[in-house]
Amino acid sequence: MARPPLTDAELIDRYGPHLNQAPPGGWNAGIEFDRVVDTHCCFCGQQCGIKLKVHDNEVVGFEPWYDFPFNEGKLCPKGVKRYLQGSHPDRVVYPMERDETAPGGFRRVSWDHALDRVVSEIRRIQDAYGPDSFAMLSGVSLTNEKSYLIGKFARLALHTANLDYNGRYCMVSAGAGNKKALGIDRASNPWSDIPLADVVWTAGTNIAETFPITTSYIWKARDRGARLIVQDPRVVPHARTADLFLPVRPGTDSALFGAVLHELIRHDWLDHDFIDAHTNDFDQAAAAVADMAPAWAADITGVPRARIEQAAEWWGTSATGMLLHARGIEQQSKGVDNVLGAINLGLATGKFGKPGCGVTTITGQGNGQGGREHGHKCDQLPGNRDITNPEHRAHVASVWGCDVDEIPGKGIPALEIIEAIHAGEIKGLLSICFNPLVSSPDSNFTREALDRLEFYSVIDFFVSESGHHADVILPGSLHEEDEGTSTSGEGRIIKINAAVEPPGEARRDWEILVDLADRLGSGHYFPYTDTHQIFEELRLASAGGTADYRGATWERIEAEHGLFWPIPEEGHPGTPRLYEGGRFYHPDGRAKFHAVPYRLPGEVVDADYPVWLTTGRVVSQYLSGTQTRRIAALVAQYPEPLCEMHPQLAERVGVADGDLVTVTSRRGTITLPAHVVATIRPDTVFIPYHWPGDKAANQLTQRVVDPTSKMPEFKVSAVRVEPAGGRVTTTDVRDFDLQGGAT
Ligand SMILES: Nc1nc2c(c(=O)[nH]1)N[C@H]1C(S)=C(S)[C@@H](COP(=O)(O)OP(=O)(O)OC[C@H]3O[C@@H](n4cnc5c(=O)[nH]c(N)nc54)[C@H](O)[C@@H]3O)O[C@H]1N2
Ligand SMILES: Nc1nc2c(c(=O)[nH]1)N[C@H]1C(S)=C(S)[C@@H](COP(=O)(O)OP(=O)(O)OC[C@H]3O[C@@H](n4cnc5c(=O)[nH]c(N)nc54)[C@H](O)[C@@H]3O)O[C@H]1N2
Ligand code: SF4
Ligand SMILES: [Mo]
């Protein structure tokens, strides 16, 4: 039986009066608006079109934008509530400086004071310890313009090599795998190809909760008779109607992909013409899977042998097919291997570059695609260029008008920045759009690191949990307070339009950075007076790179509901299907197979820690939760983390649904209610990670990373689960109403 969500009174009682409550009469009652602004959702990489209703300087509601082709008016629970952030009482509306005697630990200061303090601390730290001792962390909820600006700001204003971004925890395994195999890093297809696939295979993604709009594309394929294969340790909602469910043990996906390739070869379900004409190194990949028979993989993965054989047959014998993967296979110390293993299956069967054919990542964050192209990765320059390549550096230096030697070299990735802070090698940090305390693995370690900084400044619109460790907080802008472009998970560049001005003394993010650059003595490199000028420079800087935006103009982007890069010159139609005709982006135009031997995850279960832990998301919460934990309607749907576990495990542990359990790993411990469901492997527990402090799943996770992408292994840890004593009242536990879907 479904339990009711918390009432408003219960919510206020438990979570305090700061939640944004519905006005009397309901959310839409009596709302007057003067204008409607066409823009996009601030949350996930689907980047749904939405129309924001504006009254005076406040976003007061939304309307569906039926004409925007990707989502045709559809939105998920987060998209329809995002407008409740702007006038939230927690909004930071003036600069603040740490002051232990002030209420909340911060006192109000002027912009001049705040910016001068930041600049003097940067100077002091860099004079004492060298330029790279001051690092910057950024995020890709930010537009392309801001991403580009941050890359330039870190290199030419901060003069530091140590800039990285939160996509290091999100898209980098997909990015590295795509580049190695295909020579470019973007979704292989526009989503309009999904309904044309005869087989849709999802690997490590909970689409119905994390990319809800994509489900409608899959249903269209199913309406045409497509088969659905789902590979996940949990029977996630879209898996409940799957034709084939592959209940993979966390961290073993490369064995499964290897066995499928083994079967494709054994039955000769191969597209030899495609392999000969469009790929290299098939023999190496084939040799690596010679011993990976389904029976071997069944032992490792826990997926019955017959299901592995069935997956191979359907994939190998269907004319079209798409494999969609996300963080479940990517956030592992074998993330890149898993991506390469998936791509091998597409190449072996010629499922690239044709309608309804592709192997593609589903990009996570709002601008997770564009934000990984324009230079705020530690090894990257705009256009997805390589910061160590002399030609690439020379091109970007010519656009920036600087000497090539002024551009620092390669820096270290996000988690290594945190480790270098912990080790005392990095002394100062500026972060924008990143809440590392909640989102980094091993949060107790991260907290120690943040407390060791000599100086920390944060640009944010709320005081995040990381922000509580800052010395200076600079109030930045919400998504609806600035314009620019974003690039959706499809590779579609879209236009974000400003609906309102930042409130109080808050400023647009880019204006803060330009002001800081000026005070750091680099103002001549940052002469912008609006974001359009930044985009025009980005076009030039990206020109000739793999992520080429040269031909994209704001006007065409708006008029055509987005443009797919690469778009090398004005008038170019853009490139919706990336590998059309089997043309890949390595210099010889061919894709590359990779040998993917199987290796163990960074940590395996043992007598002390006998249960696998995996972490991820729920539909109503977003990332570190700073935004969605402040919206009452979303909190009501899923107020607190729960430990999802199978009835068999619950029985072994000796707990029932709602009982408190303590979950312990080698890094930390968390106590939370058990959520007993038949839709998860009995050897695995799942905890969503959107909460801070003693509710943070990342207290348990490990700092092991993929050797190539440096992605932390969020999806695999070994834990112990024990009864904690006591239970919570029934309203504390959201019921997923899974009875019908159990296997
Ligand atoms: N509601 C909501 N939507 C979001 C977000 C959000 O925070 N909330 N964030 C956005 C972002 S930035 C991202 S990156 C995406 C993430 O989107 P997803 O990758 O779909 O989400 P996750 O919940 O991280 O993990 C997906 C699935 O991986 C499974 N999994 C865990 N371990 C393994 C494994 O070893 N192998 C396999 N095959 N599967 C495994 C989990 O059971 C889970 O169902 O979502 C985006 N959309
Ligand atoms: N255990 C576990 N950990 C994970 C994951 C997992 O699956 N499991 N997933 C990882 C993934 S995929 C991701 S993407 C990361 C995300 O991790 P984070 O990037 O740390 O998460 P966010 O919540 O997006 O934090 C962004 C901060 O930026 C602020 N912000 C948002 N938009 C803007 C803006 O436009 N301007 C400014 N100035 N600030 C803004 C928000 O208020 C918030 O404080 O978490 C990772 N951590
Ligand atoms: S699916 Fe993603 S982009 Fe669309 S409304 Fe939901 S969070 Fe926003
Ligand atoms: Mo992400």
Please sum up the structure shown.
The chain is built from 23 helices and 28 strands.
Give descriptors for this structure.
743 residues, alpha/beta, Phosphorylase Kinase, domain 1, Rossmann fold, Dimethylsulfoxide Reductase, domain 2, 4 domains, 7-stranded mixed sheet, 6-stranded mixed sheet, 23 helices, disordered C terminus, binds ligand MGD, binds iron/sulfur cluster, binds molybdenum atom
Q: How would you describe what is shown here?
A:
Helix 16 (414-422) packs across helix 18. A hairpin with a 4-residue loop joins strand 25 (659-664) and strand 26 (669-676). The strands form 7 sheets. A 7-stranded mixed β-sheet has the order 5-4-18-17-16-6-7, with helices on both faces. The protein has 743 residues and is an alpha/beta fold. The chain folds into 4 domains: 8-85, Phosphorylase Kinase, domain 1; 96-170 and 367-479 and 505-522, Rossmann fold; 172-361, Dimethylsulfoxide Reductase, domain 2; 611-727, Barwin-like endoglucanases. One ligand MGD is lined by residues 44, 78, 170, 203-206, 209-211, 231-234, 236, 248, 250-251, 253, 326-329, 364-365, 614, 616-617, 619, 621-623, 686, 715-716.
Adjacency order of strands in the biggest sheet: 5-4-18-17-16-6-7
Radius of gyration: 25 Å
CATH class of the largest domain: Alpha Beta
Name the bound molecules. ligand MGD, iron/sulfur cluster, molybdenum atom
Q: Tally the structural domains.
A: 4
Number of strands: 28
Secondary-structure-based class equals alpha/beta
Mean pLDDT: 94
Percent range of helical residues:
25-40%
Strand content: 15-25%
Looking at the structure, the CATH topology of the largest domain is: Rossmann fold
